[in-house]
Amino acid sequence: MAGLVNMKAKDYEDGLKILEDITSNAHEIQEKVLEDILRRNSGTEYLKGFLNGQIDKQLFKKNVPIVTYEDIKPYMDRIANGEPSNILLAEPITGFFRSGTSGGQAKLIPSTAEFILEKFALFLTMTASVVKKHVHGFEHGKRIYFMFGKPEIETPSGLMARSVSTSYFKSINFAKTVSENHTNPIETVLCPDSKQSMFCQLLAGLIHRDEVVSIGSFSLSAVVRTIKFLEDHWKELCFNIETGHVSDWINDSGCRTAMSLILKPDPKLANSLEMICCSKSWEGIIQKLWPKTKFIDAIATGGMGQYVTALNFYSGGLPIVSPFYASSEALFGINLEPLNKPSDVSYTFLPNMAYFEFIPVEKDDGEEVQFNGVSDQEHPIETKHKDEDTEPVDLVNVTPGQYYEVVVTTSSGLYRYRVGDILMATGFHNNSPQFQFVERKNVILSIDADKTSESDLIKAVEEAKALLDPVDLLLIGFSSYADTSSIPGHYAVFWELKTKQGDDVKELDPEIMVQCCSIMEESLSYIYKVYRKENAIAALEIRVVKNGSFDALMDYFVSQGASMNQYKAPSCIKTKEAVEILNSRVTGRFFSQKTF
Ligand code: AMP
């Protein structure tokens, strides 16, 4: 979101100054952040139980347990159901952030005015200051920043639960910011229908094509998906520009009004766009359509790494700026070398955003770290906690080269909370450490903000395979991967089947297989379904492989050094070679027809 802040020259200078200041005094600032949190909140029901009202940092570390969402969920539920939020934090909460989670319901994380109006705004100011320092002319011209509000729900307490980005879009400063330096009218961002929203944001971006200096979105997957949408809809968009009329199916009144203000008949522009779009190959289309674009602005590390190749194709190799690392729970750090390739990006932690601790984790020896989707390396990374009793270390005490799981204590009511992200310390800027994002703990499949764990997938497979029993079939092996070779990407699940008599399967009933796909989707998380509904994830696929395929997979892993005795087919495969072994043995492909 490097482009969200409407800033003057002095703001950029101040941003860099604050950054230098806080990173130089990381230790002192961390101590102060923790002290403030304890002073404000030691009287809450939650902390009183561990600290007895004392404001003592040592006691905090000794007594307050390190927790996961499941541990604190009862508190979130109580607040969502109407109990006062001061059972958890002193500052009044203004709502909840709805965060993606693997399985079940979305997580509810308390949000406060301080988070959105102060912390988030400062975080974006510093991010934009760094980008401006590295990208000449970044502050001039307009930005296309594709933004899509997500559905919000009202909890029984009356407090709204929405995604961080939707909360920010709804904040007071945002509309003004957008109108001044972004092509997308605020109404198109707030439109609840993502297809209409995407169409109108593209239309506005094309109308302003000669002023655009950057194109982005929160995540790289959204940029790629929007360009793909353009590939499918460019004729209609050009026709709208030629005639000056927005298509009739755009029936959101906000979108129609906003577009009517900027859309005038412009046959010349429509013709130039058509000439570009009708080209057979869309390689480099972004630079052709928006010739002044200097960079792509979107998170491109971790799970988003799988979209770098597709984006490079469309952009013709424009730099990708992966600006920051943040979550609903806390804002962590920003990328001080924004022009680095995504695979080389580290994020410098900002010590004033939260109190950070790090649990050391071990990575299996001899394996290469996989930062970007399907790896070229032989094995994906496997991390495990060094020892359950390992003490977490403070921010300034991390060791470069070591892997950690990040734990946060925030002013919004999270105390020693495991975020679930694995990071590797890479160095320091002044006295603040820098980290590469390694992986989301326990998540095996992810296309966008969806996070599916191994147990979620197993549960989905278990539910679906119940349909096999009545037709005398057995599932004898399964695995999966996130297939992003086409946009939008989808979950591909390999199944090896046999008859109950032990014979090869001669014929499959397509109806049953399609139903199996649908049952699996039904079983997946709420966030998965939201993204399916928006067509940000395509239909789940079952690929039936011929008999012996999973033996071939085992042979491959054993040839790569896996122990035959301990071998267990992985629920998710991450290397190109392993995916190819199963893909080359596919005998049938079935897709879910479930509508969301
Ligand atoms: P949510 O709270 O649903 O917005 O998701 C936040 C999660 O997205 C983080 O905990 C990370 O797992 C992931 N994430 C956020 N920023 C980055 C980044 N820069 N690189 C990789 N993953 C990220």
UniProtKB/TrEMBL annotation:
InterPro entries reported in the protein's UniProt record: GH3 (IPR004993), GH3_C (IPR055378), GH3_M (IPR055377)
Record has Ligase as a keyword: yes
UniProt feature coiled coil, ranges: none
Any one Gene Ontology cellular component term annotated for this protein: cytoplasm
Domain GH3 C-terminal stretches: 456-576
UniProt keyword terms in alphabetical order: Ligase
Domain of life from the UniProt record: Eukaryota
GO MF, one example: acid-amino acid ligase activity
Sequence intervals crossing the membrane: none
Record domain GH3 middle: where: 347-440
Family under the similarity heading: Belongs to the IAA-amido conjugating enzyme family.
UniProt protein name: GH3 auxin-responsive promoter
Phylogenetic lineage: Eukaryota, Viridiplantae, Streptophyta, Embryophyta, Tracheophyta
